[in-house]
Amino acid sequence: MKVDGKHFRSLWWNHDAGVLEIIDQRWLPHDMRIQQVGTMQDFANAIREMRVRGAPLIGATAAYGMALAMAENPSNDNIEKAWAFLEETRPTAINLRWALDRCRLHLQPINESERAQAALTLAHEIADEDVEINRNIGINGLEIIRDLAANKTTDEPVNILTHCNAGWLATVDWGTATSPMFHAHDAGINIHVWVDETRPRNQGALTAWELLSHGVPHTYITDNAGGHLMQHGMVDMVIVGTDRTTRTGDVCNKIGTYLKALAAKDNNVPFYVALPSPTIDWTVSDGITEIPIEQRNVDEITHIQGKTNSGTIESVQVSPDGSPAGNPAFDVTPKHLVTGLITERGVSAASAEGLADMFPEFQ
Amino acid sequence: MKVDGKHFRSLWWNHDAGVLEIIDQRWLPHDMRIQQVGTMQDFANAIREMRVRGAPLIGATAAYGMALAMAENPSNDNIEKAWAFLEETRPTAINLRWALDRCRLHLQPINESERAQAALTLAHEIADEDVEINRNIGINGLEIIRDLAANKTTDEPVNILTHCNAGWLATVDWGTATSPMFHAHDAGINIHVWVDETRPRNQGALTAWELLSHGVPHTYITDNAGGHLMQHGMVDMVIVGTDRTTRTGDVCNKIGTYLKALAAKDNNVPFYVALPSPTIDWTVSDGITEIPIEQRNVDEITHIQGKTNSGTIESVQVSPDGSPAGNPAFDVTPKHLVTGLITERGVSAASAEGLADMFPEFQ
Question: Looking at the complex, does the CB of residue B212 fall below 8 Å from at least one CB of chain A?
Answer without folding.
Answer: yes
